[in-house]
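Protocol step 4 of 6.
Sequence for Helix-turn-helix domain-containing protein (Tunturiibacter psychrotolerans) entered exactly as in the expression construct, tag removed. Do not edit the line below.
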Amino acid sequence: MKRKPQKQSSPTKKSTPSLNQTPRATKSRPKNKGLPSKSRAKPRLAAPRTEAEYLAKPEKFKDTWDRVLGVVSKMRREKISLTQASRDAGINPRTVTRWGKTALQKQKNGKYAAKKSDSLLRLVIIPTPDGTRDIAVRGSKQVTLLAEYWNALHRYLQTGDSSPLKKFQGKHIVDAKGVDIPLSVDLSALNRLGSAGVLSFESLYARTT
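Step 5 output, structure tokens:
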């Protein structure tokens, strides 16, 4: 019996990709992988607006802030340039313009001049019937009023002339929290504080450079 010849199977054709076939999209790696995000960036120091904010600052910043205040005050008082006042205080003028910018005004010639007043925070010493205390005030006008009061007080203690103190009857200093602190004109209390040596110091600022 004759065997039928077996049909040879044709080789399997490999499919070739079509030219119109869209290649698979590969996931691209984020470009910023491994780089620190903006949220992790170190926060910049901000100018203090309250006594608590000032006291919480590093000592280095407090020193810088006090020097900036000194430069601004000297520019306003002596009518000198930012460069000269900064040199006298041992601070870079750029640092002064950064932190004391609101107290300065750029003139047409490109130079800075101190404004007539400002709202920068200052720590000052004020006498009370119980002794002196440190308070924070916002604004050079408050400091000017307190300086005039201290001058009148020192004159009274040195000469016994109380007439300069009369203009401060009923006046007060407003601290950074908006609290009114009266300027004492009670001669008996001032005499007691003066005898105790409480009212003797070189500056009305609670912290000096």
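Step 6, annotate. Confidence is low (pLDDT under 50) at residues 16-20.
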